[in-house]
Amino acid sequence: MVINTVDAEKRLCQYFSNIDRSVPPVQRPMSEWCDDNKLGFLLGVLSHHPDSAEEIFNLFDPEAELTEETSNQYLDDMYDLHIGPFKQYGPTGSLYVTPCDSASSVGSASPIFQAEVDHSNLKAALVDRACVCLFCWIYKPWLLY
């Protein structure tokens, strides 16, 4: 049986059937996530990474005994894989810096906006700051020098 994203979405909706869909989800820190946050995150993972459909489908099988610990570990792993690279701390403690091999070149987002930046030069400003092209993820080591 080939599992697609629709099958995995149905399985997730069955697993999280206790959610009151008339109430909009509340944004919370991950440590305080409720079922609505977990469902939304996993649906997002499925929509952006359909190759994870079979894994999610099998993990949330109602006949398997899924423990909260296993569920939370899977959420942590997916969060680290898909969100973690964008939430690194720089040497100044600033959050939301882009990944870069050189700690000395990592800074906060504010230096980009010290100069006039518009759509025509935003990519260049981001590459200059991060040493990596955020659009194609090609490392630009020559920008370090």
Layout of strands and helices, then pairs:
Blueprint: H1 5-15, H2 35-48, H3 53-59, H4 68-82, H5 122-130
What does this structure look like?
There is one protein chain. The longest helix is centred in the middle third of the chain and has 15 residues, at 68-82. 39% of the residues lie in helices and 0% in strands. By secondary structure, it is mostly helical. It has helices at 5-15, 35-48, 53-59, 68-82, 122-130. The chain is built from five helices and no strands.
How many helices? The count is: 5
> Compute the gyration radius: what is it?
19 Å
What portion of residues belong to β-strands? under 5%
Biggest sheet details: none
Structural class: mainly alpha
Question: What's the oligomerization state?
Answer: single chain
What is the overall silhouette? globular
Mean pLDDT: 74
Provide the succession of SSEs.
HHHHH
- End-to-end Cα distance, whole Å, is 53 Å
* Percent helix: 25-40%
Please count the beta strands (DSSP E, at least 2 residues each): 0
Low-confidence stretches: 90-114, 140-145
Which features characterize this protein?
5 helices; 0% strand; globular; mainly alpha; 145 residues; single chain
Explain briefly what this protein structure is:
The chain is built from 5 helices and no strands. It is mostly helical and 145 residues long.
